[in-house]
Every structure is written in C-alpha cells, then in structure tokens.
Amino acid sequence: MVRKAVIPTAGFGTRFLPATKSMPKEMFPIINKPIIQFVVEEALDAGIENFVFITGRHKRPIEHHFDINRDLEEVLKNSNKLELLENVKKISHLINPIYIRQKEPKGLGDAVLVSEPVVGDEPFIVSLPDVIVEGGTEVLKKMIEIFNMFGKGVVALYEVPEEEVSSYGIAKVKEVEEDVLLIEDLVEKPSLEEAPSNLAIVGRYLFTPKIFKKLRETKPGKGGEVQLTDAMRKLLEEEALYAYKVKSKVYDTGTPLGYIKTLLEFALKEEDIRGELEAYLRETLLK
Ligand code: G1P
Q1: Class of the CATH domain delimited by 4-254
Q2: pTM value?
Q3: d(CA 118, CA 110)
C-alpha cells in the first residue's frame, strides 16, 4: 500500500530572493491558495494518508498553514464571514502533518533521505511542491496502479520544448504499453546535446524504500548537491524503474516567469476575475 508522501520544502527559493528570505516559495498564492495546498490536496485525493514535509529554518509558515488558528477562527466567526471560516477550518483538518528539518540545504536527494526514519520500509510518493499538475490526482493514481502491477518505482514524465531540457531531469525510455514506459537512463539538467530525449521529470515520484540505500551512496553532483536523479540512476543498476507519461498541463512555478504564467492561467479560469483581467491585458499589450 502506498500511504505516505514526502514533500521536500527545505530549499532557499534562490530564484525568488529576496522575496523568499523569510517567506517559503511554497506559500506563494495562486489567487488565494498557496501552491503547497494544491500539491497536498492532489495526494490526499489519491489516497495518501501521511504527509512528511522536509523543512528548513524559514519554513514555519507552512506549519502554521496546516495548523489550527483559533484567533482567526474567532474573528471570522464574530464578523459573520462564515464561508471563509469554513475554508480556514477545512485546511486545519486536512492532514496530520509530520515535519522533519533538513539541517543543511544539501540537495533534493539529501532531503528525501532525511525522511527515511519516518517512511521506513514502505513504498512512498515524493511530490515536489513547485509543480502543479492538471488532473494530478489521476496521475498519482495511475502511478500507484503501475506500482501495484510491477512492484517497482514509477516516475511521472512529460514532454518539454527543447530549450527547457536543461532545466529538468531528463529520461531515456522504452515503451512498455500505452503511456507506460521503462526508464533506461536519466540525466540531471543536461545540455541539449547531452539530452537523451525531451521527456522531463515532472516532480512526482513513487519509490520503493531501496532508493534510500542509493541516496546514501550518491555523492554530490550537479551544483554540488546530492541529486535525486543521480540516486535513481544508481537504482537502475539493480531495479527496474517505470515511468508514466503525463498528457495534461504541467505548471512549473519554480521560476518567476513560470509562477507568473501559472498565476495568469489560473486567474483566467476564475469567473469573477477573467473579464476584467482579459480587458486589462489586451489594453496593456496594445500600448
Ligand atoms: C528538480 C529535479 C529535476 C526535476 C524538477 C521538476 O529540479 O532535480 O530532476 O525535473 O525538479 O520540477 P529543481 O526544479 O528543483 O531544480
């Protein structure tokens, strides 16, 4: 049974500094919901029961977000803002989170390794909280289905344009059946010449606990950090790794431009914002 999800949130959010000096980028809002909540709800709806957040010293707002805030509830109740009150309460009871500190930012691979004492000897999901996947719950469910079929790890991949391959982990694959692929090789952030394909790791993984052993053996790689992709590459020597190809839209909020694009697309989906926003954008673009 896949019951646990690890959500690494310890990074410094360097691309957004100084905004992320004290504010986690995972808490940036998409209209009125922080990015991390999309990622949590996606996993929750796919049947995940335990959420393990890997945090760092400036990530406390994430803990507050999923916690009860009686003062706020009181204020909302007294001012008769009942819809808001319900929404705020719902978030407080969404999950029973577990927070573990990664003491030093030694990379995504190291962050996942920090979760080992809590994950133990079970298969588990890793969801990166700067990516929002349209229909993400269905993607996770499909990954769990593939895991149940083969008993091996599964990684979600999606096609990116050539100019973006150097921003992602890229996979070389072989097709097993429609949408189900077998991973033959992986490279973290390759140049276009080195890239074996344009299939990028989305930021949704399902691992067997064997990944922990491989993470322990992985030396710092690209950027001097322990790369999860490198540990997965080592795992391939011992164990098959499957992939599921995502066809829906993937929003990468990890860069200022990606965040703005995501925000705009979600704003254009909001009935009470769309009309005015569209008019404003047209007017601004025509200037
Ligand atoms: C990380 C992973 C990369 C993956 C990406 C997905 O990179 O290292 O393999 O493709 O997430 O968003 P980051 O975005 O943290 O630089």
Answers
A1: alpha beta
A2: 0.94
A3: 15
